[in-house]
């Protein structure tokens, strides 16, 4: 049995905690988790988890927990074999993922695993870490932190792993690293971890759900159940947007089967009234990941001549929501109001 | 001097009260106003109005006020020469405008004046009142009821009047009635009342603002100032939607000048941070007039082969907002939620 891989996991919310649990349960990784808002709570009593895959888990603690990202070189720490990032990814709001990960990544050694949604998320990382393998993790897992340190894991964890292509590295090595990580992640047998070498296909496939249903639910504040119930929403808002994603994916050589559209629309049972993560973020006044989930697919698709008028509208509406939140948080300032009524009468 | 025209005005909020005031000030109409939520308050002390056109007006009372729509035939009342409707118009939520007006309209005598936005609002009225002249009032007037019986009138009242074409009546008579009403409305000299015989042009012109800016502000909850400030909103959400309206108007023979687009976008000064009425309605949890303001233009335009993908998206998003409100108010019922987490683990 190999020794446990020294693993850093950044972003220990709903998805990240289940990842940490699977890695620890498998016995092939020792996870150091970086916590933020829940650090105090979890230091004291661990995570309380109610999971479809693991059952009731009381007081789960990863091998180590930290309240800040470690600086490996400066503090002469043991380098991390895996640096896993399960945070949200919004390139339009600092800090960027690269800024976040940089102190933890050992050049030429660490394997960076991005368990995040969207397209082109690897681009800034390939530029920042040209000697490191960067893996793609596409997660299908319904899990939420319902209170500090309390995780409700409702939908089984399925993780699809592949390697982003780093032009300076040997693709064979990258693929081996992807396979190795897949094995380590799935070693506990409580989740599905699958090696999917065609990262592009896997990501475009998930975008069918994320770019479209996430967007529509975030914009309209209809959950996926109400989206199916309200007159005309599926036919006029969901389906044509999803066909734009299929057309864009096709322009990049990824043939997403037509019946995936209905599969995705009806994936969440109506009476579950499930709000997708972006809708939850809007409701909670949190930033949304609209640039990689909607912006990049639109930019990529239109760059190849695919008409994407509907997703373009969604993109700009989501952009307006982000702008409003930035204004609220003081990241954007606007001129003071002027009482125009005083000028007349 | 002619005797005062017996006039009924239904919908005495921000716009309706200013209409009542102009009609009374002109001395050519005696206005009976039908009030709802503000009836008690206004019976007691009248309207308090702060107006760009009229200055400070304390305790304004129309000639008569009622708390319900009168039934002229049943109660043997003096017939109304004018029945003016300044309520919101949402055909998808009962009661319809026809249902509202029917008891007050004397067939073959009353002139119905619709001071309301949108396209095809006359259709159900022409069917219900085939012997009556139906006038179009397109109002440019910024006025709000900021508290019960308290009116803040910020933007001058400009009313454009013309006749909808009733196939059973003589167009010359209709036009004379439109001119007569225009004269009566403007007789006080405190507003602009203009006879515009080309009702279609006037309505499509206003749709340039209403179908587009109203929709976008209602959907994004950006006011017209923030719409101009937030990155990309004017170029990507407003302008292309307005070009769709121009194209649809053109298909109906109405040539809206290109520079109207910028005129409308910058009409409200940025630092006024003005929320258009539909945005105010969404914020206050009130129904929105999206069917006549967005739905009909989209249906009319596309029926003549004009591509309107952007406004079609706005239409369905607005439709989703209306649906949610109907659900909230119990006009729509949905299946009970089911706890799908109990089925596994």
TrEMBL record, chains A, B:
Q: Which InterPro entries match?
A: 6-PGluconate_DH-like_C_sf, 6PGD_dom2, ApbA, KPA_reductase, KPR-Related, KPR_N
Residue ranges occupied by any Ketopantoate reductase C-terminal domain in the UniProt entry: 202-321
Its name, as the record gives it, is 2-dehydropantoate 2-reductase
Classification of source organism: Eukaryota, Fungi, Dikarya, Ascomycota, Pezizomycotina
| Annotated ranges, domain Ketopantoate reductase N-terminal | 9-165
The record lists the membrane-crossing segments as none
Q: Name one GO cellular component term.
A: cytoplasm
Top EC group: oxidoreductase
Purpose: Catalyzes the NADPH-dependent reduction of ketopantoate into pantoic acid.
Q: Which organism is it from?
A: Cladophialophora psammophila CBS 110553
């Amino acid at each position: 049995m190999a020794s446990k891989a020294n693993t850093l996991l950044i972003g220990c919310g709903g998805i990240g905690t289940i990842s940490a649990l699977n890695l620890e349960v498998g016995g092939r990784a020792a996870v150091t988790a970086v916590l933020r808002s829940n650090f105090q709570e979890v230091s004291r009593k661990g995570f309380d988890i109610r999971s479809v895959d693991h059952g009731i888990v009381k007081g789960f603690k990863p091998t180590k927990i930290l309240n800040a990202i470690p600086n490996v070189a400066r503090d002469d720490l043991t380098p991390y074999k895996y640096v896993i990032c399960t945070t949200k990814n919004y390139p339009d709001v600092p800090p960027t993922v690269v800024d976040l990960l940089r102190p933890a990544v050992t050049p030429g050694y660490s394997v960076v695993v991005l368990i995040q949604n969207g397209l082109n998320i690897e681009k800034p990382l390939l530029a920042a870490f040209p000697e490191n393998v960067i893996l793609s993790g596409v997660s299908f897992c319904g899990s939420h932190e319902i209170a500090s340190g309390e995780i409700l894991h409702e939908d089984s964890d399925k993780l699809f792993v592949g390697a982003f292509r780093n032009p300076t590295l040997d693709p064979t090595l990258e693929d081996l690293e992807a396979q190795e990580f897949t094995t380590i992640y799935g070693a506990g047998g409580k989740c599905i971890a699958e090696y999917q070498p065609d990262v592009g296909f896997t990501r475009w496939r998930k975008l069918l759900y994320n770019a479209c249903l996430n967007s529509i639910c975030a914009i309209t504040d209809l959950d996926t159940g109400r989206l199916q119930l309200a007159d005309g929403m599926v036919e006029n808002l969901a389906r044509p947007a999803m066909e734009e994603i299929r057309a864009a994916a096709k322009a990049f050589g990824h043939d997403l089967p037509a019946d995936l559209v209905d599969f995705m629309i009806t994936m969440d049972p109506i009476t579950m009234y499930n709000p997708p993560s972006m809708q939850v973020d809007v409701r909670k006044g949190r930033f949304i990941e609209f640039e990689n989930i909607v912006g990049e697919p639109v930019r990529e698709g239109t760059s190849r001549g695919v008409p994407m008028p509907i997703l373009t509208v969604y993109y700009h509406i989501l952009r307006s929501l982000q702008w409003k939140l930035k204004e609220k948080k003081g990241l954007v300032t606007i001129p003071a109001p002027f009482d125009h009524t005083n000028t007349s009468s």
